Amino acid sequence: MAQEKRDYYEVLGVSKGASEDEIKKAYKKLARKYHPDMNPGDKEAEEKFKEVNEANEVLSDPEKKARYDQFGFAGVDPSYGAGGPGWGDGAAGFDFGDLGDIFGSFFGGGFGGQQRRNGPQRGESIRASVSISFTEAAFGCEKEITVERSEQCPTCKGNGCAAGTTPEVCPTCHGTGNVQVRRQTPMGVFASTSPCSKCGGTGKIIHQPCPDCHGQGRVRKRRAIKVNIPAGIDDGQTISLRGQGHAGKNGGPNGDLLITIMVQPHEIFRREGTSVFCEAPITFAQAVLGGTLEIPTIDGKVKYDIPEGTQTGSVFRLRGKGIPSLNGRGRGDQYVTVNIETPKNLNKEQKEALKKFSELLGEGNYEKRKSFFKKR
């Protein structure tokens, strides 16, 4: 029920003045936390995930956000009762017709473009998210997501009427969906156009509604949709599937399905654009004498020869071992930072051998130490 809805800003944990970037970050964090892939079988997490997606669908859309900020839930959900929660104190009984008259006086039209309600209207887009692994993001994959959307009613083919019946043209507005209202004010007579109250702005009256959609022309369906995720996609990017959103009205086109990609962190690799970064521990002997390392990459392990005298923090480049470009042209590189691992828990014999080595070596082979301790 509408009374059970939580404020969308509260759901995402942001203030009303939050920026678009803050809303996006909050959504990504919560969507990842409550995503069904992260919480298999957890019904509470599933409900919270739906709640987070609903809040993001409104707050990430500037137009919907503006309506929500002004009118609460009723501004973004026509089925939400007028004067109910989300309208604000003292808003009960607010007449959209009055507001339409005011706007119409100055702009010659009804409020919010409702003068076009009887024309084709594009369906709203649906926002969803999908979690993929680091490797899946690099090489692409196919995922299946489940969405709930409105579709054209198959029984009445979208006209909202029971079988064998047709809608009546509204006798008040003659099918236009609009009526002109003239008002006498101290400033003179003002004329404005507002939605027809007889037909609700649709231009038609349905006497025998379709039993399946109850005259709405659309029904709610749960659909499993396959999504091809391209190679090179990055965390936070969005894929648009045209026509996979909510059904349009009055013959209007369907909305889109907008899928935000959430890439799970990798235990070894870090990504920046098409470049991949990782750190590799090496032994003291390998650093001094050089040697061949087996470096993990997203393609598997590769051999790489490090030179004698390699210093900790040195960075080596593996060309073409990074992320494929999203446009399919080439790949980035992988950068490997080597760090010398200091051995622990040496036995007596090992310690003695290391001391002898240090005495033989002296200070002459340590260039950085010599220059550092000469500085004042």
Characterise this structure.
- This protein is α+β, with helices and mostly antiparallel strands and 376 residues long.
- 25% of the residues lie in helices and 26% in strands.
- It has helices at residues 8-12, 20-34, 43-59, 62-71, 96-107, 134-139, 284-289, 348-361, 367-374; strands spanning 126-132, 141-152, 168-169, 178-185, 188-195, 204-205, 218-229, 238-241, 257-263, 270-272, 275-282, 291-297, 300-306, 315-318, 334-340.
- The strands form 6 sheets. Strands 10-11-15-14 form a 4-stranded mixed sheet. A 3-stranded mixed sheet has the order 1-9-8. It has a two-stranded antiparallel ribbon with strand order 2-7.
- A hairpin with a 2-residue loop joins strand 12 (291-297) and strand 13 (300-306).
- Helix 2 packs antiparallel against helix 3.
- It starts with 7 loop residues before the first helix and ends with a helix.
Structural descriptors:
4-stranded mixed β-sheet; single chain; 376 residues
Blueprint of the fold:
Layout: H1 8-12, H2 20-34, H3 43-59, H4 62-71, H5 96-107, E1 126-132, H6 134-139, E2 141-152, E3 168-169, E4 178-185, E5 188-195, E6 204-205, E7 218-229, E8 238-241, E9 257-263, E10 270-272, E11 275-282, H7 284-289, E12 291-297, E13 300-306, E14 315-318, E15 334-340, H8 348-361, H9 367-374
Parallel strand pairs: 1-9, 11-15
Antiparallel strand pairs: 2-7, 3-6, 4-5, 8-9, 10-11, 12-13, 14-15
Helix pairs in contact: 2-3
